[in-house]
């Protein structure tokens, strides 16, 4: 019996990478029930080409379907104008799925210092930030990716494919021309893991360019607990169940006024709170 990782799934076949070989396997009958995903660590019989067992997962995403992702690399760039609401939702998505989010500022070659400063000041207390250019240097990403399974996320045209290609030029993923890529979106692509170094993988995730609140399984009343930049203030609000929106004597609101919490982050918190509340009402009313 060998241990490997599922790097690709097509129909009922699974590509299992073990050491330097990839075996195309089928799962043992009773395994099909539990589901088997790209990213799963499995035990398999190398002569029968049969997957016998799955190791316990650290994480499982359903959309895109992938197991054991360690990190989501959220990419932003000066062009196109960042959709920070999407960034904040992706951060929440990572936290709620027990995955580490990293913010990656790409296109440093064309970024103004003020752009970098603004992003840094909004997110420095939220998550790790790396600055790269797919055109010039992605050195800062290398150590972040090492020994991890990572997936790129972020709006179209920020450079996710370019970064993937810069890391692994042999892949030669299509780089766009936004309109072309948008149109190509409907051709369903399978999810695949690429090994970029020893024990180091990146996932190809075409399904990570938007995020509906219904994929954020967060109770709106608990939303602020997923804000590392709010955490120090939460206990100081007058009301224990403070929404940090409607109440008086709210320590979060005071911190926003004093510039201790980024205004934009707070503004988007309110939007996400209301959207989650609507989602909750839709489900339970
Ligand atoms: N100047 C500059 N342009 C970049 C960089 N990375 C990507 N681009 C360009 O941005 C556009 C979108 O890139 P792409 O990788 O397709 O973005 P994706 O939609 O996120 O996968 C393409 O025209 C790329 O050439 C970068 O670091 N610097
Ligand atoms: Mg792309
Ligand atoms: Zn409050």
Q: Kindly state the percentage of residues in helix.
A: 25-40%
What is the distance, rounded to the nearest whole angstrom, between the alpha carbons of the first and last residues? 52 Å
Helix run count: 9
Please compute the radius of gyration using only Cα atoms: 21 Å
Question: Mind telling me the CATH superfamily name of the largest domain?
Answer: P-loop containing nucleotide triphosphate hydrolases
Q: DSSP strand (E) fraction? A: 15-25%
Explain what this protein looks like in three dimensions.
With 285 residues, the protein is of the alpha/beta class. It has three domains: 2-56, Beta Barrel (OB fold (Dihydrolipoamide Acetyltransferase, E2P)); 61-204, Rossmann fold (3-Layer(aba) Sandwich); 213-284, Orthogonal Bundle (Ribonucleotide Reductase Protein R1, domain 1), CATH 1.10.40.50. It is built from nine helices and 13 strands. The strands form three sheets. It has a six-stranded mixed sheet with strand order 10-9-8-11-13-12, with helices on both faces. Strands 1-2-3-5-4 form a five-stranded mixed barrel. Strands 6-7 form a two-stranded antiparallel ribbon. The longest helix has 22 residues, at 263-284. The protein is globular, with a radius of gyration of 21 Å. Mean pLDDT is 90; it is low at 177-188. The structure holds guanosine-5'-diphosphate, magnesium ion (MG) and zinc ion (ZN). Guanosine-5'-diphosphate (GDP) binds at residues 106-107, 109-110, 133-135, 156-162, 175-176, 181.
């Amino acid at each position: 019996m060998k241990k490997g990782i599922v790097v690709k799934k097509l129909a009922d076949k699974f590509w299992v990478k073990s050491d330097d070989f990839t075996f195309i396997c089928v799962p043992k009958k009773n395994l099909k029930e539990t589901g088997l995903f790209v990213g799963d660590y499995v035990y398999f019989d190398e002569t029968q080409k049969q997957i016998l067992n799955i190791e316990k997962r650290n994480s499982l995403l359903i959309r895109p379907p992938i197991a054991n992702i360690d990190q989501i690399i959220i990419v932003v760039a000066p062009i196109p104008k960042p959709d920070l609401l999407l960034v904040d939702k992706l951060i929440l998505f990572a936290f709620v799925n027990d995955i580490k989010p990293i913010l990656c500022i790409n296109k440093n070659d064309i970024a103004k210092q003020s752009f970098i400063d603004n992003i840094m000041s909004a997110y420095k207390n939220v998550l790790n930030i790396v600055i790269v250019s797919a055109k010039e240097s992605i050195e800062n990403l290398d150590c972040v990716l090492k020994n991890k399974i990572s997936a790129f996320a972020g709006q179209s045209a920020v450079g996710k494919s370019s970064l993937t290609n810069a890391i692994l030029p042999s892949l030669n993923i299509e780089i766009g021309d936004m309109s072309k890529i948008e149109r190509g979106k409907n051709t369903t692509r399978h999810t695949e893991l690429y090994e970029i170094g020893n024990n180091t993988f990146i996932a190809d995730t075409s399904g990570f360019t938007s995020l509906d609140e219904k994929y954020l399984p967060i109770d709106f009343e608990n939303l602020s607990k997923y804000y590392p930049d709010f955490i120090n203030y939460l206990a100081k609000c007058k009301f224990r169940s403070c929404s940090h929106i409607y109440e008086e004597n709210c320590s979060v609101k005071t911190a926003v006024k004093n510039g201790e919490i980024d205004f934009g982050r707070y503004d988007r918190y309110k939007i996400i709170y209301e959207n989650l509340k609507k989602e909750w009402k839709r489900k339970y009313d």
